[in-house]
Amino acid sequence: MRTARLRTVHPVLWAGWAALAAGAVLCVLGWYGVSGERYAERQLPYLASCTVPGAALIVAGAVLLAHGRGALAAARVEELYGLLVAAEPAEAEESAAAADAPLAVSGDLLMVPGGTLWHRADCPLVAGKGESVPVDAKLLASGELGPCPICEPVEETD
Fold first, then answer.
1. Cα–Cα distance, 158 to 53 (Å, whole number)
2. What is the pTM of this model?
C-alpha cells in the first residue's frame, strides 16, 4: 500500500519543483531582456514571452508542491491507520478489560484539605501527596465532599 501511493505522489513533487525552477529561469531571462531595452515597445516581447509565463509556472509549481505534500501526508495517515487497524484483537481485548477496571482499588479513603472530592488511597490524584488526610465521616455525611470520578470510591457504611 505504501509504495503504490508514494510512487504516484513523488512525480507530482518533482513536477512542482521543475515548474518552479523553469518559472524562475524564465523570469530572470525576461528581466534581463527588459533591462537591456530602453523603450517600452521593445520591452513588451520579453514580458509576454518570458516574464508572464515564468510567473504562471511559479504559481503552477507552488500548487503542485502543495498538492503533492498534501497527498504525501494523506498517504502517511493511511499507512498509520492501516497499522493501527492491523493490531491483534487480543491486545484490544486486554486493553478494553484494563480500561473497565478501576484505577484504584484500595479501601482507605483520603481527601486533600480544602478539596471537594474524596478518593481511594491509591488514586493517582492523591497518591504520594503528603498533605492528603483520611476522610472525616462527618464530611461524608454532610455531603460537602463528592466521590472522585477517577477512582470511583465507595462510601463505607459502618
1. 88
2. 0.43
Model pLDDT for residues 7-23, shown as the tens digit of each residue = 666 788 888 999 999 99
- CA dist 14 and 7 (Å) reads 11
- Cell numbers 493517582 label which residue? 124
CB 119 within 8 A of CB 111: yes
Residues in the chain: 158
Kindly report the backbone phi and psi dihedral angles of residue 88, in degrees, each rounded to the nearest multiple of 5, phi listed first.
Answer: -65, 140
**Edge-to-edge strand list for the sheet holding 109-111:** 133-134, 109-111, 117-120, 146-147
Q: What is the 3-state secondary structure (H, E, C) of 73-104?
A: HHHHHHHHHHHHHCCCHHHHHHHHHHHHCCCC
**Contact, 113 vs 145, CB < 8 A?**
no
